Every structure is written in C-alpha cells, then in structure tokens.
Amino acid sequence: MELKRADQIAETLEEAVFKGEYEDGHRLDEIKLADQFGVSRTPIREALQKLVLSGMAEQIPRRGVFVRQPGPVELLEMFETMAELEAACGRFASARMSDEGLERLARANERCRDAVDRDDSAGYYLENEAFHQEIYRGATNSFLEREALRLQNRLKPYRRVQLRFRGRMTQSLSEHEAIVDALKAGDAELAATTLRNHVTVQGEKFQQLMAGLNQ
Amino acid sequence: MELKRADQIAETLEEAVFKGEYEDGHRLDEIKLADQFGVSRTPIREALQKLVLSGMAEQIPRRGVFVRQPGPVELLEMFETMAELEAACGRFASARMSDEGLERLARANERCRDAVDRDDSAGYYLENEAFHQEIYRGATNSFLEREALRLQNRLKPYRRVQLRFRGRMTQSLSEHEAIVDALKAGDAELAATTLRNHVTVQGEKFQQLMAGLNQ
DNA sequence: ATCGATATTCTTGTATACAAGAACGTTGAC
DNA sequence: GTCAACGTTCTTGTATACAAGAATATCGAT
C-alpha cells in the first residue's frame, strides 16, 4: 500500500533520530524541514506528531518539537522491560510454538553459528534479530508480539554495540542454544529465565560500554 | 499546562471510543467532527492521528479513519500481556519497593476491604486500580511503569465488568492479600506468580461474561 | 557595562482553499 | 432485472494564509 507523504517523512525522521543525526534537545524546525523535504508544513507537522507519540521527541505547545534521545537510566529501564517481555514470549512459546516454528528457530540459530564462524558481527546481528522475532511469533499472542517488536525496534541502535565485546557473539550463541533447548523441552520457566538473562546481559554489556566511553 | 485544542479533542474522542459511543468500523468523519467541535479540520485531523497511533482507530489512506474496538481474541491477548507486565512489576517491586511503598500498598488494600464490606463495587474498582498502580510504581522502572499504566488504561472499560461475578470482589481481595504477603516477604517468584494469576483471572472472568452475553 | 522594558521577528496552531482520489448515483446495454 | 461504465459528489491530503504566542534584539536608564 502506498504511504502518504507525511508517513514517508515520519519514517525518514525516525531513522535519523535512531542514527543520532539529531542530538538530544534539538528542536525540529517545521519550516526548515518543509524546505528540506520540498513540501508544505502540513505533512511535516503530521510526521512530527508521529515522532512525539512514539516517544522519540517531545512537544512543548507553541514552543516546538524537541528530539529525545534516551539517557542511560531510561535505556537500562527499557532493556529491563525488554528482558521481561522476552521472558513472557518464551513462557508462552514453550507451550504454543509449533514444530515448524521450532524448526525455523533452530535454523535461525544455525545461521547465527555460521556468522560466529565467519566472525561476522553484522551478520550475527541480523540473524540474532530474526531468532528473537521467531520467539515473539511463537508466543502466539499478536498483541504481545507487536509490543515486543516495537521495543526491539526502539532498542535497535543500542543492541548492536554489545557485540563489540570480545567473545560476546560466542557467549550469545551459547545462550541461544540453552533457549532453544528449553523451548524444545517445553519448559516454560527455563525458557523464561534463559531469555530474561540473555537480554539482561545485552543491557549490561551496553551499560559497560557506555561507562567506558564516558571516562 | 494548557492543552492545545487538538489535544483536548483527542481526549474527548478517546473517551467516546472507550465508552463504546462509536461502534467498531465506524468512520470518523472529519467534516462532521469539525462542525461538532466548532473548529476547522486541522485540529480534528491532528486528534484523529492520535487515536490512530494509540490503536483505537485505523487509517486507510484517502479513505478515512475507522474506529477499532478490540475483538475477543485481541482482548484476551491484551489481558495476557497485562498479566505478564504485572508479574514483571511484582518481581521488581519485591526487591525494590520501599517500606513507605509497602505501607501505601497495604493501606490501599485496606480500602479495598472496606469497599468489599460495603458491597461497593464502584469503590472497589477505584481502590483496586490504585493498588495495582502502587505496584507499578514500586517496580522502580519508569519505562515499565508507563507501559503498565498505558495497558491498564486501555483495558479500563473491560476490567470493570469482572466485578459483576458473584463473590469476585471477595476473591480478588484474598488474592490481593497473597500479593501483599509475597511483596513483604521479598519473594520475587511468588509475587510474580500471584500477580500473573490475579490478572489472568480478570481476563478469564471477562471472557466468561462475554461468552454469556453472546448466547 | 549591565539590566529591564519594549519592539520586532520568528515559529506554532488553526483556518481555509484546492487538487486528487474514492464513493456513490445514474444511465444504457444485455 | 442486472451489470458495467461514466458522471457527479464527497472526502482526504496538502498548500497557503493569518493570528497568537514565544524568542530575540534593541534601546534607554543606571
């Protein structure tokens, strides 16, 4: 389906905020953006409203729309929440995932292993994402799946950095195998616990890296 | 802070959708709404976009904005997700809740008991809401607290009906006491389990009532 | 040089206009 | 009577205009 101009612009702006092209507190100027995109202010205003409602910017009435990059505390909280959502997905998936789903999950993890063998962190990152999305799908709860995808997407720029730690890909793969085993065994608690710990480690690695950069 | 007109209209429309004033699939006519609220289409369009982005309506480009009342399956999924979010809040709160917070929680539950004694389901409903919000706060994770509040608010029209079941208030109160005990004991798993079960029962009661009405 | 008041400029929120696409009604053929 | 094509009407998406409020600049007094 064809997106209207305002929606296209919203996607472009969200990507730019993700990439850090605008720093925290930057005011998104309607007139400048209208010039930049070659449109009137109306679709720009509509696009900015999307950013505000998704939490990537905040609006102060009659003052403007300001970019909001999450600080370290908020990121920690988001990773904690992501860990709990993934644990919930794992719990449901352990009972509800079909045999086909388990097959796809195992294959996604094999592609993760191939990426580790190649020392390919970009490939690992993509296959890791697909691995987790297979579990969200396996929870067989569309609402929870959407919530998990939304937060996974929100944390995308930060999830990547954890792979910079030496040995993290190998460790992550090992954790994946424990997750797959728990799901195959139909062990709800084990699936929940291994997933929660797996994502918690992601958040911790991120915090450690940020702490290192700020010194 | 003073809300702009568009935001005021959005709140009014959201309340109307909550209350079921618009049935599922109803097209929200920009021109009619502009007349009704005595404004131009511009703030109406902005308000409608809020409804779309919060999931209460869907937009089909160049066709219009249509109200989306969740069906039974989606409601079940939302209650399931709510149960998992509350379990997560309970897990964190068991370790992080302050003594003052535990005091406030116990007092909120005493007000629930008073409402049961009066056979006051409206009062119970309000105090029950405050009870749960105290646990969200006690999780000491602002992001998770906002997510839980958002879904609690979304499920508001449906949570109320469960109290129509005979004996449900007394049962709910009993479950509350188990929750308070688990939090006081600092038992993360018990807190999570009792909260998850408590909210799952809410969802189940709702389904049973809907099934009865549809016959 | 600094500070407060006032004036000016700029940006936002809303109103209105217009083009394009969708929905609906009418007409003619079968 | 039904269906397809065409014409008309209505609604949406975007452009532009304007008023109001916020931000910034300037000027005068100390």
From TrEMBL, chains A, B:
Domain of life: Bacteria
Pfam families, alphabetized: FCD (PF07729), GntR (PF00392)
Coiled coil: none
The entry's keywords: DNA-binding, Transcription, Transcription regulation
Keyword Repeat: no
GO molecular function, one term: DNA-binding transcription factor activity
InterPro entries: GntR_C, TF_FadR/GntR_C, Tscrpt_reg_HTH_GntR, WH-like_DNA-bd_sf, WH_DNA-bd_sf
Stretches assigned to the HTH gntR-type domain: 3-70
The name this protein goes by in its record: HTH-type transcriptional repressor CsiR
Organism field: Ruegeria meonggei
